[in-house]
Amino acid sequence: MAQGTDKNSGGPGVPPGESIGQRIAAIRRARGLTQHGLAQRAHISYSTVTKVESGHIAASPMVTSACARALRVPATDLTGQPYYDQLKADQLEELIQPLRQAIANPMLPPEEGDPRALAAIRADVARLDAWRLRGEYMVIAAEAPALVDELLLAADRAPAGREREKTYRALADTYRLARSLLGKLGYTDLGLLALDRMQQTIPHAGDPYLQVVVCHYRGDYFLHHGAPEIALREIGAMERMLEDPVRRGDVRAMSVRGTMWLKSAVLHSRSGRSGAAGEVTGRVSEARALAGRLAGRPDPYGLVFDEMNVQLHEASTQLDLGETGRMVELGERVRLPEGWARNRAGHHHMDMARAYEVVGQRERAVSELVAARQAAPAQTRYHPTTRETVHALLRKRRSPEPALQAVARWVGV
């Protein structure tokens, strides 16, 4: 797997602890490319390449993924993930290998043992999902491997019927949790394998919409690695599958359909194509209409599809489209409900920090980073956007204020 090997490793010849722009420059030189050549390959402007490499502007997620694709490296080679020093400090690194083994296991149950009652196992899966929504991952890393083994054993012993379907659904959710953790920490290839395992459960789980959930998470991989068109093709297939059940008012189908509207809006916002803004507007509008119809209904797949999440996507996609002022305007209107999904709230604060940095409101940018840390500490600490925003703020301050210094130390910059 193409993962880093040192603290913030960015591939061969890239020193640890560098910004994304510095990693882009080092790998570009190793490839024998000029800045003009990279700009042509990545379909971005020469000015953007020079400013990102020199540190005059932060590398946006779209620029990062476009350069990764043009340089033919994983996006993690540019972001420097996984961040091994922080993983060690948080005692997460030692939990990755057991999780890797649980996912690499080709769904073979243990030879011995007695699984608990399914209700007890499902309660543990739900508890881990609640931790995910809080943006905290250590408990998932610690407990998911044993849950995978227990559910494989339970599924092997369960008689055909509803009980067995529920067991496989819980197993699908556990693989989904593993993928969420691994994606956040930068183990993207291992996260893909977790999704493959989740897909293997679908024929036995009695829920055709789990395929759409897999599509949602797989879309993140293509988004981050500069291939949004592949994700959009798969989403198109899912949309056709969902047409009839959505028309009939199937709540589960409507929920995942709304999630697909939001995912495709993000993909279009980072595609760099002409007409992307119109595509984003249309898809956000469709998502808003569905969210209104589902107001007050349960969230069946933990994807947080609701009116608040639509509002956050409406704002964040403007940032990716280059409409930073509009992002700030929309983002400042957001009023996050008490107790709402902290992982999504934390992501919103990270997006606002990035936007404020771009428009030169640096104090507000630092405040938003602090708010992101308060909302979802682990997610914020391990997210490349946090580090890139901190790098950008530090470059523009000869004497950084204590709050920025504290955030920089905390994330390892």
Annotation keywords:
413 residues, mainly alpha, globular, disordered N terminus
Helix content: over 70%
Radius of gyration based on Cα positions: 21 Å
Q: What does the overall shape look like?
A: globular
Computed structural class: mainly alpha
The end-to-end span amounts to 25 Å
Number of strands: 0
Low-confidence stretches: 1-16
Proportion of residues in β-strands:
under 5%
Overall mean pLDDT score? 93
Q: What is the ordering of alpha helices and beta strands? A: HHHHHHHHHHHHHHHHHHHHHH
Number of helices, where a helix is a run of at least 4 consecutive DSSP H or I residues: 22
Largest sheet: none
Summarize the structure.
About 70% of the residues lie in helices and about 0% in strands.
Outline the fold blueprint.
Blueprint: H1 20-30, H2 35-42, H3 46-54, H4 61-71, H5 75-79, H6 84-89, H7 93-104, H8 118-133, H9 138-157, H10 162-185, H11 188-205, H12 210-224, H13 228-247, H14 251-269, H15 276-293, H16 307-320, H17 324-333, H18 342-358, H19 362-375, H20 377-381, H21 384-395, H22 402-411
